[in-house]
Amino acid sequence: MFESLLAGLEMALRLDTMLMMGLGLVLGMFIGALPGFTTIMAMAVLLPISFFLNPLVGIPFLIGVYKGGIFGGSIPAILVSMPGTGASVATLFDGPALTKKGKSRKALEMALFSSAFGDFTSDIITILLIGPIALIAMRIGPPELAAVLVLSLLVIVVSGGGVVVKGFVMLLVGLFLAMIGQDPIGAASRFTFDFFAIRSGIPLLPMLIGLFALPEIFAAIEKRTASYIRRSVGRAEGERLTFAEFKQCFKTICRSTGIGTVVGMIPGVGQVVAAFMGYAAAKSASPTPEKFGTGELEGVAAAEAANNAVNGPTLVPLMTIGVPGDNITAILLGAFVAQGLRPGPELFATQSALVYAILIAMLLANVLFVVVGYALVPVFAKIVTIGKSYLLPLTIVFAFAGTYVYRSNTLDLLFLVVFGVAGYALRKLKFDVTPLVMGFILGPVLEYSFGQTVTLSQGDMLGYIIADRPITIVIVITIPFLTYFMWRRGAKLRRTYSDGGGH
Which of 69, 114, 122, 449 could pair covalently with 301 via S-S, beta carbons 3.0-4.6 A apart? Predict the structure, then answer.
């Protein structure tokens, strides 16, 4: 493992990797700073760019977009009380109040440094943990993998933000869509209705851009909020953050980093919950909790350190067993698959140096994060005043062009529109599309693992599992208990989130 780490370090130290990560950070911060333009939309629209780059360049580029977008959402949250991303909702408690006091520069710089610290620390923990977890994952055979995938899909449904029944409906739809095309074991066509274009299955890229990007664009057109922002507010004003002020909040930043790291390893929870938990923990631990919500730098630090600490750990389940931790890592999985790489035990066994190279690049991105953010925060502060009417047409062009250039297939544009309209309708009906995407991505792997288990059992599956794969029995027995626990935990976190949202 240590040799792979050293090899990965050598592979990651490339000029083109650093330049593309820097570009990704700038683009992520730019889009995150626009009210209503989310990180998911940025990732989905920019995803096709990574297909034409070396994996050591393309995937770090998307990671840069990811990191930059999560931080960028704090800029409009602080300046104009409009979170650029859902992850920055908790920053609304103290960020705008600091702006009213003429301390917007201090608030933005506290958000930057606490975000970078939380991200950097959680990335180190990710690199240290991913090797031992991968060694365990390599011992997983088809029965264990099938059981883990069932457990993962159930946890994603019950711990998500929507109604559980709706989540199960979306999961079943995703699993059905995954079955269209060829059987992964026998290669027989099914559910194609003699339509040649889908004989090889529904393409992943139009689905990702359609479900994640187009509904965001439609919603942005519908709201038209950015055009009403007064242009005078988009400034970083006041004195700069001092080291003493950062040091005063350091204990809170460390606490929120720990919270975000743990939350990031749990599929389906995400940055929003981490930010609220970090903020609530800081307020509870403070000797003056009544000051929170009136313009406390500690409140900004707590929320931003927690939501950015989620970024690295979400890659642990993705890299080790091939299970995306949230919808953003689902888009990253799409980037891996398009590059001919399938995250999971096999990738770690055959190309561990590449995995470590990507993780180390992710760590180095935090250094660029501080440099780019510190230099460009005043510029990004002005971005909140840009009217959406200038940017939405360009975003739509990127979505359609990116979909077409990947395979140069005009039918992909039809898939894009269909999934875009469906995604917008589902959003209106309060359906979370994340279980659908997870079911679509993990469905073929689940089916193949189950098919292999049936073949290996030679007609006596129960006897085979009891005699040769007892760990599978343990996983199957824990599925209902762990699913129930995650459902209760998710419901509690959603209540906390709702209470916090009403602050």
Answer: 114
CB atoms within 10 A of CB 388: 20
Contacts of 397 (CB under 8 A, 6+ apart): none
Locate 395 and state its tokens: 């975003």
Q: What is the DSSP string of 381-408?
A: HHHTTS-HHHHHHHHHHHHHHHHHHHHT
Taking the CA atoms of 373, 378, 379 and 382 in sequence, report the sign of the dihedral they define.
Answer: positive
Q: Burial level of 394, CB count in 10 A (0-12/13-18/19+)? A: exposed
Unique residue bearing structure tokens 């750990």: 313
Give the residue with greater pLDDT, 231 vs 281.
281
CA separation for the pair 174, 148 (Å, rounded): 18
| Cα within 13 Å of Cα(456), Cβ side | 17
Residue among 220, 234, 214, 219 at smallest CA distance from 386: 234
Residue 194 CB coordination number (10 Å): 6
**Per-residue pLDDT band at 301 (split at 50, 70, 90):** very high
Tokens of 130: 């991913």
Tell me which amino acid residue 424 is.
Y
**Residue 220 half-sphere exposure toward CB, CA atoms < 13 A:** 26
Contact 370, 118 (CB under 8 A): no
Are 272 and 493 in contact, with CB atoms under 8 Å apart?
A: no
Model pLDDT for residues 247-287, shown as the tens digit of each residue: 999 999 999 999 999 888 776 667 777 888 888 889 888 88
3-state secondary structure of 181: strand
Phi and psi dihedrals of 502, rounded to 5? -90, 10
Nearest-angstrom CA–CA distance, 166 and 434: 11
Q: Please give the full DSSP string across 158-219, using - where no structure is assigned.
A: HTSSS-HHHHHHHHHHHHHHHHSEE-TTT--EES-TT-GGGTT---HHHHHIIIIIHHHHHH
